[in-house]
Amino acid sequence: MIVTNGGTPPALAAKSATSTIPIVFINVGDPVGIGLVASLARPGGNITGFTNISNELMPKLVELACELVPQTKVIALLVNPDNPNAHGVIRNTQEAAREKGVQLSVLKAGTEGDIDSAFASLRQLQAGGLVIDPDGFFNTGGRRGQIVALAARFAIPAIYPHPQYVVAGGLISYGIDDDPVYRQAGIYAGKVLKGEKPADLPVQQPTTFELVVNLKTAKALGLRIPLSILARAEEVIE
């Protein structure tokens, strides 16, 4: 069997490589929308797994950005254009920004150099906050540290989808708790190895979310975290 992590691209690559070997994917944003499975309840074929509902997560990240910097008129979205789920992420973020009455600037980055260029454009855009796409490309291979360092250098309040960013010095994150997902993926793998078919195992959605705040970073940015956010935080790093 095959277990894929890192989001949509590796899951799609595995599916295109085989229609017979069982596949369990992890952290795919919209498995139905990109054609990975027929439905969440009945995935069909040789593949099932776990979605991180990244599309549905974007309005919450926009809400946090507007709560942190209520005076801003522009927020930016850093998105990986090479991910097939990018269109859904952009669409949901644009809708959320429109509802909040702020302008959204989309910054596309598919390489480390693109990430540098995206941050360099923030001042010209006059963006008051930055939302990071829940894409595995940004959260691996040293790019997580790159993004956190750039956010500090350009003094931009950035809202992240994973707590690892905040532990590394990022400002604030809201997203799923990955640990239960990995445990459940191991259980699914065990079921498949014992003979169950992926087509009969529904795609699971996350049920546990975490709000994490780094007060040291907030102080460095000269930013006061609203009590409404602190009261909801599962973890506050001081």
Number of separate strands: 10
List the domain count as a whole number: 2
What is the correct CATH architecture of the largest domain?
3-Layer(aba) Sandwich
Low-pLDDT parts are none
- Strand content of the residues, in percent? 15-25%
Cα-based radius of gyration, to the nearest Å: 18 Å
Summing up helix and strand content along with how strands pair, one would put the structural category as alpha/beta
- What's the CATH first level of the largest domain? Alpha Beta
* Major sheet strand order: 5-4-6-7-8-9-10
Instruction: Provide the CATH topology of the largest domain.
Output: Rossmann fold
Largest sheet: 7 strands, mixed
Residues in helix, %: 25-40%
What is the chain-wise order of helices and strands?
Answer: EHEEHEHEHHEHEHEHEHHE
User: End-to-end distance, in Å?
Assistant: 43 Å
CA-based shape: elongated
Residue-averaged pLDDT: 94
- The CATH H-level superfamily of the largest domain is Response regulator
Main traits of this protein?
single chain; 238 residues; alpha/beta; Rossmann fold; 2 domains; 7-stranded mixed β-sheet; 3-stranded parallel β-sheet; 10 strands
